[in-house]
Amino acid sequence: MLATFRPMLAAAAVLATVASPSVSAPATPLHAPTTRPMLDHAAIARAHFGNDAPWYEHRIPFFQSADPRIDDVYYYRWSIFRAHQRDLGVRGYITTEFADDVSWQREPYASLNDASGFHIAEGRWLNDRRFTDDYINFMYEGGNDRHFTDYMADSVWGRYLVDGDRAAATRHLAVMRHIYGLWDDHYDFAKGLYFIEPLLDATEYTVSSIDASGGEDGFRGGDAFRPTINSYMAANARAISRIAGLAGDTALAHSFAVRADGLRARLLADLWNPALDHFADRYKADNQHVKYWEPIRARELAGYLPWMFDLVPDDPRYAGAWAHLLDPASLAGEAGMRTVEKTYPYYMRQYRYLGTARECQWNGPVWPYQTTQVLIAMANLLDHYGNTGPVTRSAYMHLLRQYTALHYQGGRLDLEEDYDPATGEPIVGLNRSHHYFHSGYIDLILSGLVGIRPRADDVLEVNPLLPASGDPQALAWFRAEDIPYHGHKIAVTWDADGTHYGRGTGLSIEVDGREAARRASPGRLTVPVTRIPNPPIARTINHAVQLVRGQFPMASASTNPDPEMLHDAIDGRLWFFPELPNGWTSAASNDPQWFEVNFGKPVNADTAELAFFDDGHSISVPVSVTIEGLSNHHWSVLAQARPLANGITRLTWPKRAVSRLKVRMKPAQGKPLRLVEFRAVSEFKAP
Questions:
Q1: Is pTM, for the whole model, over 0.85?
Q2: Are 269 and 306 in contact (CB under 8 A)?
Q3: Where is 46: in which H helix or E strand?
């Protein structure tokens, strides 16, 4: 657990006096001088990330609250983000869904498009914009193969709302439009709706696919007009319209606005099921079990996705659907949100196994994937809908805490694919499931709990979704700082009685270290913030990445020359999770060990970054490392260091052309050593 760090107390300064239009009384007048960071970033990073703390310290926003479990999961989720950054060398970084390889990923990159919305939503809050920028570039430069449905254009717009970078948002407009058009192959022109097989919606074994098989299976089949794909496509069309507006293409903006409005109208007219009081599928499939256009017979969690994209009118008729989410007889599991209601005849029936291990299904299990989407939808409902049905801020915080608890496996943090809604125990339990990145959490904290509601105009809006003091789900205090917004750094503080931070009672906003607004009670604050250019993105290139096994660069080693193990140490993936062994592991020996990378040509490099794993007992970091380089058929020593355990050891030298690099390592007490990743780095040069 993260200890509560003693804040560096400092006062705040006046930037502007601001009152929110949604607050009946003016915000408390501003009163204080310039602030400094109140949270000890170095100490917090060290507590959560150990020797890998330098990667995080100047990149992530820092957060602290009265609930240490939320704090711990917030920082754990940044470690998931870090672990899923795959370095492709000259093509930069992408974000992966699975840490380990799976057979259905896009080779050789290990990318999948279905989780891109979560990846971008989390990454938009980083102060280092390279990772999300590279990822978006990759996905729109051939990386999005439409293997699954996605809402990536909408996520790019969401990133623009945070960073305000017009050029980055409009860069791929033509490709966005092209990809949107390709989805006509899943469009029923007569009905004006999109359809999809649940498997290709990344939700196999849902009601439509199970019932289309007569209850016998459900992995494939069951094509249906679903709230999911139609919400995604309406949101993508709306985003393309808005991005086209940024680019000055008024005709394209109008065209896609019309598409978005038309699709939204069809979704509301045809996918709202009055009998279920819920948004639900209609069948595209037509066989002996189900009929075309017939509605499915049970409520699914997917029915809340239209609220995620603000597609639902502010009407009590629709808001009543949220009662099902809170009903233990329907979608409210003891440990999390059920993906289908408990009364469905095939609820939690296990159809698919890998050996004896249970495989993924959506007929009841809790999925962090859809839990995230529903919490985003609920945050929208609470933030700007007048008709919220039975949903309260207390209910939101309860469900957020319930989701937080799923990240814990006893005393350790390890998010997996899906869970039993009755017990909260993981279901799949396969190696690929550890530290799975097909969900969000950081964005839920910053845009929901903290309440930063990013906007396209020059306004910062904050509305924390906290219940009133005295509610069992209330938070007495929190602070989030070093948050990027429109080129600035912002901070948000809540202190119910003013005693925790000693800077006054209530909610306050700071912009670039100066207090900009304050109010005594939870609620909405808005602050004018004129956007400024973001700092330029700094890039280096890693010459040592082997994307295709058997091609250059190639690795060799003193012991354990298993090709897959050698590849793992130069595959551009880096993490220190003990549940997922990764990299090259030497034999147990007191003899010096070495690991060599042959580039197949001279490359200009001036830095090696070595990541070593140490589990504290059977695998140990080496005592010392030496880097040698081969130039013009001559080996020479370039640099030496004492390496870090579970962190990055950087060795630098004057830049030179080398065709091979070799790291020599002295083992500790004869124990095996594990080189998680070997990087050979120089300043980025476009190909």
A1: yes
A2: no
A3: helix 41-49
